[in-house]
Write a structure and sequence with these properties.
Length: 265
């Protein structure tokens, strides 16, 4: 069963998604995975799982090699066997969170939410860093539109994990190719233990520049925030208001722009 859990993890199949595939509750999936033998599963659920993994018996689990081709083959079976069921669940959801989204976008959002919820529910030990990891992911998503390189990072991770073909370029091909090559070199250097050959002084200096750059950006952000607040207070005062609200927001913004133009002239 340990090998089954490893395979599911490498395939990126969460317990929530597996529960949908097998037509059972998430708690039932936990119960199944705690058993010491797949052959103890209900026969219909075992057959579904074996079909999903592309094998005929549990004895073949140890022979499975999770590479790009295998991941793509499993995804193909997932799409053909379960696509209609999963999509219908998303489409019929009337929650406002899905408003304005197409079927494909709804399905993706649903999968993301379910995965996040599952992992956060399992985060009983704060020392494993799950909460902080997802907090950083939230920050990553917030910053993603400000830097195209952040999207290249996502593409690199998807390829390195075997979810996407290595020659697939969803963004600017030339820039993405260059970024992935540099990223691979850096990760190879880090994971290969070759950092011992690097000067600790140079590494420390590089990290110091990294810290200085971040502190500089934070100071600039704070300065801009203070300046904007000052302009907002001045604009509200000149217009004779006591606060900014939905009714006067447009007028206050125009006044802020006017005040800024005075300084420029």
């Amino acid at each position: 069963m340990d090998r089954l859990n490893e395979i599911l993890h490498e395939l990126g199949i969460s317990k929530v998604k597996l529960a949908k595939f097998l037509g059972v509750s998430r708690q039932m999936i936990y119960n199944y995975l705690e058993m010491d033998d797949i052959n103890k599963w209900p026969k219909d659920k075992k057959v579904l799982l074996l079909n999903l993994l592309g094998i005929k018996s549990a004895d073949e689990l140890d022979q499975i090699k999770v590479d790009t081709d295998y991941i793509l083959s499993v995804e193909s079976r997932v799409n053909s066997l379960f696509e209609n069921t999963i999509k219908s669940e998303v489409i019929t959801d009337t929650s406002t969170i899905y408003n304005g989204l197409g079927k494909k976008q709804k399905e993706l959002l649903s999968n993301i939410i379910n995965l996040l919820k599952e992992n956060l529910e399992d985060d009983t030990d704060s020392s494993n860093g799950t909460y902080d990891a997802y907090l950083y992911l939230y920050h990553f998503l917030q910053a993603m539109e400000t830097s195209k390189e952040l999207k290249y990072i996502l593409a690199y991770v998807s390829k390195a994990a075997g979810f996407v073909k290595p020659l697939e370029y969803a963004f600017d091909e030339e820039e993405q190719f260059l970024f992935e090559s540099i990223m691979f070199s850096a990760m190879t250097l880090y994971n290969g233990g070759n950092t011992r050959g690097l000067s600790k002084v140079k590494i420390a200096e590089s990290h110091r520049r990294f810290i200085n750059q971040i502190e500089h950006k934070m100071e600039e952000k704070m300065s801009r925030t203070l300046e904007l607040n000052t302009l907002k207070v001045q604009a509200v005062k000149e217009l004779g208001y006591t606060e900014i609200n939905e009714t006067n927001a447009a007028e206050v913004l125009e006044k802020i722009a006017e005040i800024q133009s005075r300084k420029v002239s």
